[in-house]
## 1
Amino acid sequence: MTEPLKIAGFKIFKEQLNAAEQAAMVADLRAVAQAAPMRRPVTRSGKQMSVQMTSAGRVGWISDRRGYRYEPFHPDGMAWPAIPARMLDLWQDLTGLERKPDCCLINFYGEEARMGLHQDNDEGDFTYPVVSVSLGDDGLFRMGGVERGGKTQSVWLSSGDVVVMGGDARLAYHGVDRIRFGSSSLLPDGGRINITLRVVQA
Ligand SMILES: O=C(O)CCC(=O)C(=O)O
Ligand SMILES: [Fe+2]
């Protein structure tokens, strides 16, 4: 067992989504990925990320040899699909904010995928929280402070769990060390999906 994280502004809503809601979200995401195919981006240094990604919304998060940024078009040239209504409803339920997110980043973790510690800091406004949904296999989520190299705490996130990172946690370092491949039957071929809803431009 892992201890619940005690970081100001970090909230976990365990089992926020029931099985039917999770399945419906997966169906929504499949439609997004059909219109805007998942890719494994490279970083500025040319290293390929282990996670596959796509986005919905006004802008999508991309990485290539020019670095990280938000772009209004998929690397193949099409506009990103609209953020599914179900995701916007979840954002509204958990944040109560009038303002809607303008990016929904979708990450897919296969058996060997992970995400190194990083800050979500490519957005233009950090007053809005990031809402993060876990679907499929369990993922070991690691959370630190706002300084690189600080103390970290870890927690397993399961399918249907939703994390909100706002306030002091908005710019905290976080990452995913590994997944427990095959721990969930939500995705027939296994793996973990993470969705983050963000306000990129206030
Ligand atoms: O997969 C996760 O739970 C976190 C994903 C993440 O940190 C990101 O996409 O920026
Ligand atoms: Fe992140």
## 2
Amino acid sequence: MVLPMTAAGNAPRTFAGWVGVDGNRIALVTESETAAAGFRAAHPGLREFDCRGKLVMPGLVNTHCHAAMTLQRSLADDIALMEWLHDYIWPFEARQTADDVALGMTLGVVEMLLGGVTSFVDMYYFENRCVETVERLGIRAMLGCNYFDSNVDEVMPQVEEAVRLAAGCDRVQIALAPHSPYTVSPENLLRGKRLADKYGLHLMTHISETQDEVRIVREKYGKTSVEHLDGLGLLGPKTIGAHCIHVTDSDIETLAARGVAVSHNPQSNMKISSGVAPVERMRAAGALVTVGTDGTCSNNDLDMFEELRTAAFLQKSATGDPVALPAWEALRLATANGARAMGYADGELGVVREGALADLIVVDLQKPHLQPVNDVVSNLVYCGKASDVDTVVVDGRIVVENRCVAGVDLPALYAGVAAAVARIKAGR
Ligand SMILES: CSC[C@H]1O[C@@H](n2cnc3c(O)ncnc32)[C@H](O)[C@@H]1O
Ligand SMILES: [Zn+2]
């Protein structure tokens, strides 16, 4: 069964048929047995997968995470954000090396691939060191080099190095990632914007995540975070704003008018009690809403199936409207919309369509929680699990087959991660 999705419009419909890949593109999407036979004849040596009883669909796009924070998963939970950052997260991060971050990134990417995520937008330290990691594992990524006022001088050369390292790989984009409008000065926000413009890069930041942020920004600049960033010229179609929870109607209009991609992270928002993003109001205003997991300390996993489900549930719960964020719209946020957030044109990624990039996943529907298939989209969003994904293709390459990630020795990875975490915790 094939779920093509579409760039816009109504609920997607499935069909029984064939999907053919040539190089890194989808070259055939058909219900015709004759067309499939023609494709087979024109491509001798083709590898074929029997997907009867399974679903072929676009890979999921996680538009906001800190993948290397897998090393800190469950390190400190059920405490307030500031205590969490100051007493646990930042001391741990201060002892991490670039190699540790690359290792954490490896674990995060493996978790995402096994959960059907074919593209992700990251925001962390040492992203220059992670270019090689991402290239090797085969996933598609936008790596955002995070900075604060305190380390901006260190990070800017890392951005330039990362741009050079990623130049030969279309799957990897580099981006500027000032942490937030309350931790980065206007001068340094503009410094990042200038570098982004120089290389044509995206820019991402946390926007209006907490009431505290709104208060601090108002006290410092007399504006909302959106007004402040907009006044600096930071908002545009190459901007990804994570969270966007505490936004006014006028902020929403601005986000929509500038073409900013909003990354909605419902599980993180619930876990650290940040609030509920007005997703339905943002969608109604025409803003590009997408879905992200955030880091594994505030979630605590990178499971986009759970995130989709939570996004739909949370909007229904918060608005009191069971019609809010229907399943197929939630799925669109995590496929076609996510692809647009990463700069891909409509129809180029996040859809199963001839000519699109071949980022596909195969979901095994032969599971008790996915039967019967009255509505496959509802099943995916309301019952789907990361572990239902059995095959993953990124850029035309098979990176997960029978739930094995190509080129990764999982026991060795887990042992390496455990050793690194023990060393960092011991302060060695
Ligand atoms: C965003 S990576 C840079 C920096 O931010 C810290 N961080 C991770 N998650 C959050 C969050 O939800 N709010 C604020 N800051 C966060 C991370 O540990 C890094 O130090
Ligand atoms: Zn975040």
